[in-house]
Write a structure and sequence with these properties.
Length: 628
């Protein structure tokens, strides 16, 4: 039997298209050919289970070999095999009328599944790296004859009687000069580790060295020897393919270490995804420890389709904030482009996105309700992630409002609703606004915190990279008439203004004199001096920055679309307590002495805020020694 013919693609331009357009990364050829071999293996298993194959299935395995001298790579399986007629049907007929039509089909999202589903197209990825491809196959069918097919990358092929004596298929690639990098043990191992790590049929690639017991030495200690064993690439039954009821915590942790062998930390907890309607989706998502900084380690979630690795670019399937998670998602229903490298816009993608968001929110709520203490202990590791989700996804925020925590300076935790109830009757100003005081730096703002607490007020700790934006979220959705003010953005009586009015003991003339003395002693255009009526036991001088301006500048630093404010200089307000005894001394002092006292009081205020540095700090220390 010998036959020559022309591959039914009706154009001689299809191979350049495959090489340059269809597959963006030529290493994908090995994924496609190994996946085809796995499919062939699963088909014989399926036929046997249906009673349509009475022979011995045997131990199914896919074998990958290379011969550097002969410049060949061979992918072999003992699966269903093909007859000559089936080779002609599945290999020769690529159902496109021309390269132009092919490229048009590629652009249509609805056609993507149909395109990638064609056996022949995946097979032809071999011509990305080979200038000649040979198939040797023997079908499972009784009395089938072995068949051989060979093609040099043109539209011509030759089919003849083959030499294979056992069921299955060999695909032999004669590697071209541009692709000799793949005739390398390490390179092929790398590709197989990437794409075939969890395929459902064992993938064999040469041997590897391991150690085994070899008796004892003279001191009675065990000896080991190095032996070569079969190198099986994959775990054929990874954790995500099992039912959650089959797995224990140690199984999930072991799988995490399998996915991320170099990770130093164990995950906090995980979610096992398992849904078969209205789409098929399985997977495990792990919550890693997230430091209190925006170290968004993307590309940690791997997308598989029937256990074949596709990509770690999952931004369309997984909401932006969930990109902080690690793990695996496997779905045959996710539409891909022809090379399987990129996702296509599709209603299923949106449904999967929404499903994953809901599952994550439900899991967090479940943990919060069942073990609030444990949830609070994990908050420092998961708080950033939850706030990120609330700021970027309204549906997630609706659920997260029930388990999102805020902490005060005493390290007590509250839900958003609990905190609202706690302060609503105490921290209310004369206009009925409920004022949440907060600190972004407990140590640096300690003086302001102490003053607030002395009045019975609570102070929240909002010191994370997203907390400027989260403060705005709390104002919008944290409760009726809520305002957030940083504890150092003004004197406490101005932050929460009550009806009570404190009278200024200075005359108008004395107030002007105090303002003039401070302005002269400070001598800085960015410091606006105000003399105010405060309680006598309040600080003599406070240096603050307006809440609105500071918040806009902070948002500009974190990319909040406030870039204009980021370019503006800092402007501070210097509040002089006109009722403090020190201010009365300044009024009564000679000009030089008054300016010295004013400068000292101002520097103390700067020092309490960490704003006194360099030569100004040196002068302050020297002046302080002189005044003792």
């Amino acid at each position: 039997m010998q036959e020559q013919g022309t591959i039914s693609i009706h154009t001689e331009n299809i191979f350049p298209v495959i090489k340059k357009f269809l597959y963006s990364d030529n290493e994908i050829f090995l994924r496609e050919l190994v996946s085809n071999a796995v499919d062939a293996s699963q088909k014989i298993k399926r036929l046997s289970s249906l009673g349509q194959f009475a022979g011995e299935v045997g131990d199914l395995i896919v074998d990958v070999k290379f011969d550097e001298a002969a410049k060949t790579i061979t992918i072999s399986d003992n699966g269903i095999g093909m007859t000559a007629e089936e080779i002609k049907k599945y290999i020769n007929q690529i159902a496109f009328s021309g390269a132009t039509e092919f490229m048009e089909k590629f652009k249509e999202a609805n056609d993507a599944n149909e395109i990638i589903g064609r056996f022949g197209l995946g097979f032809y990825s071999a011509f990305m790296v080979a200038d000649k491809v040979e198939i040797q196959s023997l079908s499972y069918q009784e009395d089938a004859a072995p068949a051989r097919w060979i093609c040099d990358g043109s539209t011509s092929y030759e089919i003849s009687e083959g030499t294979r004596t056992t069921r299955g298929t060999d695909v032999i690639l004669h590697i071209n000069d541009d692709s000799v990098e793949f005739l390398n043990q390490h390179r092929l191992q790398e590709i197989l580790d990437k794409y075939a790590k969890f395929l459902p049929i064992p993938i064999h690639f040469g041997t590897k060295s391991t150690s085994e017991p070899d008796g004892e030495d003279e001191e009675g200690k065990p000896k080991y020897k190095s032996v070569d064993v079969a190198n099986i690439i994959n775990n054929t039954n990874p954790a995500w393919t099992k039912a959650p009821s089959e797995l224990k915590d140690e199984d999930y942790l072991a799988f995490y270490r399998e996915l991320y062998p170099y990770s130093m930390d164990e995950p906090l907890f995980w979610i096992h995804l398992n849904v078969d309607y209205p789409f098929n989706l399985t997977g495990i998502l792990y919550f890693p420890k997230i430091k209190n900084e925006l170290e968004v380690q993307r590309n940690k979630i791997k997308l598989y389709s029937r256990q074949v690795f596709i990509t770690d670019e999952v931004k369309d399937i997984v909401p932006e904030f969930l990109m902080l998670l690690h793990g695996v998602i496997d779905s045959p229903d996710i539409p891909l482009n022809v090379s399987r490298s990129f996702l296509q816009a599709d209603s299923n993608v949106k449904k999967i996105n929404n499903y994953i968001t809901k599952k994550v929110a439900d899991k967090l709520q479940e943990i919060f309700k069942s073990d609030r203490k444990g949830f609070e202990e994990k908050w420092n590791d998961i708080g950033l992630f939850i706030k990120y989700g609330m700021l970027s996804d309204d549906k997630f925020a609706e659920k997260a409002n029930e388990f999102c925590l805020v902490k005060n300076t005493d390290n007590e935790s509250f839900t958003i609703k609990e905190y609202y109830e706690k302060v609503r009757d105490i921290q209310v100003d004369k206009d009925g606004n409920i004022v949440y005081l907060y600190t972004s730096d407990v140590a640096q703002q300690d003086g302001f915190i102490s003053t607030a607490k002395s009045k019975g007020y609570e102070v929240l700790v909002l010191d994370g990279p997203l907390d400027t934006h989260f403060a705005a979220y709390l104002e919008q959705k944290g409760g009726e008439k809520v305002q957030l003010k940083r504890v150092d953005s003004d004197v406490i009586d101005k932050l929460i203004q009550k009806d009570e009015k404190v009278e200024l003991t200075l005359s108008e003339e004395e107030s002007k004199k105090v303002a003039d003395v401070f302005e002269k002693s400070i001598g800085r255009a960015d410091m606006k001096v105000e003399v105010d009526a405060l309680h006598a036991d309040e600080l003599p001088v406070s240096v603050t920055i307006d809440e609105f301006m500071r918040r806009m500048k902070d948002m500009a630093k974190t990319g909040g679309g406030m870039g204009f404010y980021g370019t503006l200089p800092d402007n501070y307000k210097v509040t002089v307590n006109g009722n403090h005894p020190l201010v009365k001394r300044i009024v009564e002092s000679e000009a030089e002495e008054g300016e010295k006292l004013a400068k000292q009081a101002f520097d103390l205020a700067l020092l309490s805020r960490g704003l006194l540095t360099g030569a100004d700090l040196t002068s302050f220390v020297k002046r302080s020694v002189e005044m003792i």
